[in-house]
């Protein structure tokens, strides 16, 4: 059994003409990304507690939750939640309130979380508080800023790294492709209404790192082939490089996908959104390595790539 | 690269063995204290507990300093017989200003202000504007003061939390003016929040001659015992820093709860002097700008102890005693972020994390064997070593593991086999080109190494950024991935290659299983 691999994704001698579909690929990608940008503004992302501030209390009632009773108890305590909803089992209740306005809103936020807890345990004795989070408005805006800084710096570092290790054309194509990937993932977030919070920023950054990795491997092969086949037309050379690395591209995508899949299925409320977005990002990143990153190089022009490769 | 020296062989095996040893303490419930056991700490999201982020009130620190600076300035002007009028304090611009009595005295007044001793270097600037002399507190200096105040506060916060009996709390500074408190196992942090939200600055001051109206040198404060406003003199006769002890007792006359206190000798002397000179007058006990009670002084109190009765119950009396014993905070702290995880959710998260980790590991292992045969199996052995080394490094640094951290481990394992896939595909290509087994292995290893380092470097950079800018659980995710990238380079470039090389040396195959 161990003497030969049992499966392959594609036969080694298979040569798929990817470059023929390059215009189609770029157009589809551009349309999806533009649509995602529109979705980003309207309806926009659903901000998580980290970035919007406010409170979330998750509790488990002893019997099936009586939402009317809980709402009445909160109302009686002078608390007007933005949402009282079920999640998970019928005994699980999630109460969320946006950050209050006004001068002493930080103190108000902290008072609210205690108020909610005592109101629901009075209404349903034996209620277990699973989670109680309260994030003040000043903290949430700092977290948001730090999250965006992390994303921005990562993109910049990747650009610099590829620029140093490869040539300018590769760096620019890579970053353009990454931005296209990133916008689609943001569009996916806007459609699925997963909450955008710090963990989601981590997901975006992981996708970014993973997708870059994928591009680096393809670019590495293109650079090698540029030196090896000095007379081959660029279009043909790009096709050859993609085909040669195709089994690796699909193989690695598969292992990362298999690793993220159980997180999406069993990861619980914290990780389901994170892992689902990861899965989407893996699919997008893999297809952009094949259909976007290399065709962009072709657009950048054959002459310059040749010249620089020879000059090396 | 096809030859491994004995030394290198021992090195790789040794590192794996050390990794296994470092993992072991995590499986022991209560390690012997005499051994240097190091375990991974479970994060609050896994073990349940509360996280509180406290913010020091910088404005209040500024306000207090402006007030004391104003007193100092007035005293200095008085001592040097310099006149002034219209002495103003502006909290918004953090400045004081006054008009000298005459133009002739302006230079002397300015010099007097410059001679005031700063608490920290470059604390304030003195200048002239429209004939007025202006003292402005400097923001940098106030931040330095805030850092000092945070350091003091951490001590006091620790004493207060220890007194509640919380187990294994962690209290640390964050930035210039914040404190992070982590309380494992505390799922109801309300009492601790209210204890930390109290400054507990106790002062004893005389009431103004006419307590119903505010007059210069006095301030209207809420009297909590009768719910009215009374004018209390700004001058503090005795304050809480002179307390040596405090306790909750049942008052023998009324039968209600009371708090007794004991003053040190300096405090006792001051207390005796004030009470002796003011028999018959009312003496206010002020806690955080609220009057707890304002009894008449019947007899001079010379022993340096006393009792506060202010409508306490058992809980509030013992809390106040606790706060007085722990000392006052230099400035108010407020909670700006709270995260509490109940114990049942923590247990469910551990379960979810472990199930995901095992399932993911199994799926990747199965994929590698099915798609890469014998070399896939070697990659799986390396994968297992990778997991052990990650746990070993986390244990060595006694790092915290959270649910996102476990996700980071799993994704690392998914990414780790990428290096094996790269090498395998490369070897396969070389074989197709007609090279013999040895040359194919050699070329495969050599050519793939550069690609492996390139692709890991970019992921490394992205996660270092996430570690620098992230907070809490996200930081933990970035940490495990960053550690994972390092262990991946070891297990793929050294360990799985070693396995392939040893197999080749022993089996001497005519054909490679690719």
From TrEMBL, chain A:
Pfam families, per database record: Sec_GG (PF07549), SecD_SecF_C (PF02355)
Gene3D superfamilies, per the entry: Multidrug efflux transporter AcrB transmembrane domain
HAMAP family given in the database record: SecF_B
Subcellular location: Cell inner membrane; Cell membrane
Species, as recorded: Gluconobacter oxydans (strain 621H) (Gluconobacter suboxydans)
Gene: secF
Subunit structure and binding partners: Forms a complex with SecD. Part of the essential Sec protein translocation apparatus which comprises SecA, SecYEG and auxiliary proteins SecDF-YajC and YidC.
A GO cellular component entry from the record: plasma membrane
Bilayer topology term: Multi-pass membrane protein
Cross-referenced InterPro entries: SecD/SecF_arch_bac (IPR022813), SecD/SecF_bac (IPR022645), SecD/SecF_CS (IPR022646), SecD_SecF_C (IPR048634), SecD_SecF_C_bact (IPR055344), SecF_bac (IPR005665)
Domain Protein export membrane protein SecD/SecF C-terminal: residue ranges: 118-302
Name this polypeptide is given: Protein-export membrane protein SecF
Protein task: Part of the Sec protein translocase complex. Interacts with the SecYEG preprotein conducting channel. SecDF uses the proton motive force (PMF) to complete protein translocation after the ATP-dependent function of SecA.
């Amino acid at each position: 059994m161990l003497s030969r691999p049992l499966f392959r994704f594609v036969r080694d001698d298979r040569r798929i003409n990817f470059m023929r579909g390059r215009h189609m690929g770029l157009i589809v990608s551009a349309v999806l990304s533009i649509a995602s940008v529109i979705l980003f503004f309207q309806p926009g992302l659903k901000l998580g507690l980290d970035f919007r501030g406010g409170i979330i209390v998750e509790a488990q009632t002893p019997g099936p939750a009586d939402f009317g009773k809980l709402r009445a108890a909160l109302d009686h305590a002078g608390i007007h939640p933005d949402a009282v909803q079920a999640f998970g089992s019928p005994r699980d209740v999630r109460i969320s309130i946006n950050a209050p306005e006004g001068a002493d809103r930080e103190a108000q936020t902290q008072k609210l979380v205690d108020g909610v807890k005592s109101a629901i345990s009075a209404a349903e004795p034996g209620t277990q508080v699973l989670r109680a989070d309260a994030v003040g408005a000043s903290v949430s805006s700092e977290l948001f800023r730090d999250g965006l800084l992390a994303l921005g710096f990562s993109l910049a570092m990747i650009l610099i790294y590829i620029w140093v290790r490869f040539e300018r054309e590769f760096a620019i194509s890579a970053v353009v492709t990454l931005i296209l990937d990133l916008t689609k993932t943001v569009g996916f977030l806007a459609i699925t209404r997963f909450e955008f919070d710090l963990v989601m920023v981590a997901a975006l950054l992981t996708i970014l790192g993973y997708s870059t990795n994928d591009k680096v491997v393809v670019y590495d092969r293109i650079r090698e082939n540029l030196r090896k086949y000095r007379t081959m037309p660029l279009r043909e050379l790009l096709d050859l490089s993609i085909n040669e690395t195709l089994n690796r591209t699909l193989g690695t995508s598969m292992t990362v996908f298999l690793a993220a899949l159980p997180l999406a299925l069993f990861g619980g409320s914290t990780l389901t959104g994170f892992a689902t977005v990861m899965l989407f990002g893996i699919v997008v990143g893999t297809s952009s390595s094949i259909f976007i990153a290399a065709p962009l190089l072709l657009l950048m022009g054959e002459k310059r790539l040749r010249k620089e490769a020879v000059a090396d | 690269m096809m030859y491994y020296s004995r030394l290198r062989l021992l090195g790789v095996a040794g590192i794996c063995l050390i990794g296994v040893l470092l993992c072991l303490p995590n499986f022991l419930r209560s390690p012997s204290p005499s051994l240097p056991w190091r375990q991974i700490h479970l994060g609050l999201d896994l073990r349940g507990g509360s996280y509180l982020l406290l913010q020091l009130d910088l404005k209040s620190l500024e306000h207090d300093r402006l007030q004391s600076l104003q007193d100092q300035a007035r005293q200095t002007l008085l001592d040097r017989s310099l006149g002034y009028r219209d002495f103003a304090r502006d909290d918004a611009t953090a400045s004081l200003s006054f008009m000298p009595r005459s133009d002739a005295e302006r230079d002397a007044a300015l010099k007097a202000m410059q001679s005031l001793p700063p608490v920290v270097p470059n604390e304030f600037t003195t200048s002239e504007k429209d004939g007025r002399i202006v003292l402005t507190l400097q923001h940098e200096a106030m931040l330095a003061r805030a850092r000092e105040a945070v350091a003091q506060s951490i001590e006091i916060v620790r004493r207060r939390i220890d007194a509640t009996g919380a187990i294994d709390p962690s209290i640390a500074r964050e930035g210039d003016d914040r404190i992070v408190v982590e309380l494992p196992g505390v799922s109801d942090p309300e009492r601790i929040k209210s204890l930390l939200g109290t400054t507990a600055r106790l002062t004893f001051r005389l009431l103004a001659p006419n307590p119903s109206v505010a007059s210069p040198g006095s301030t209207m404060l809420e009297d909590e015992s009768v719910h009215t406003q009374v004018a209390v003199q700004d001058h503090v006769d005795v304050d809480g820093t002179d307390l040596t002890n405090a306790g909750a007792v049942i008052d023998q006359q009324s039968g209600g709860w009371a708090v007794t206190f004991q003053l040190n000798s300096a405090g006792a002397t001051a207390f005796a002097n004030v009470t002796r000179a003011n028999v018959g007058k009312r003496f206010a006990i002020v806690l955080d700008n609220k009057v707890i009670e304002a009894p008449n002084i019947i007899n001079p109190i010379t022993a340096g102890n006393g009792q506060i009765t202010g409508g306490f119950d058992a809980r509030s009396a013992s809390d106040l005693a606790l706060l007085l014993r722990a000392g006052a905070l230099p400035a108010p702290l407020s909670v700006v972020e709270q995260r509490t995880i109940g114990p049942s959710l923590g247990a469910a998260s551990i379960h979810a994390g472990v199930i995901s980790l095992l399932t993911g590991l199994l799926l990747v292992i199965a994929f590698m064997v099915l798609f890469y045969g014998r070399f896939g199996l070697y990659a799986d052995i390396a994968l297992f070593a990778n997991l052990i080394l990650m746990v070993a490094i986390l244990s060595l640094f006694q790092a915290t593991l959270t649910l996102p951290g476990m996700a980071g481990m799993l994704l690392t394992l998914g990414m780790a086999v990428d290096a094996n896939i790269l090498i395998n595909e490369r070897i396969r290509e070389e074989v197709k080109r007609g090279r013999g087994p040895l040359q194919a292995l050699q070329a495969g290893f050599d050519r793939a190494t550069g690609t492996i380092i390139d692709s890991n470097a970019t992921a490394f950079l992205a996660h270092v950024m996430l570690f620098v800018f992230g907070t809490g659980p996200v930081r933990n995710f970035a940490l495990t991935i960053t550690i994972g990238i390092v262990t991946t380079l070891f297990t793929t470039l050294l360990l799985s290659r070693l396995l392939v090389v040893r197999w080749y040396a022993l089996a001497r195959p005519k054909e490679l299983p690719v």
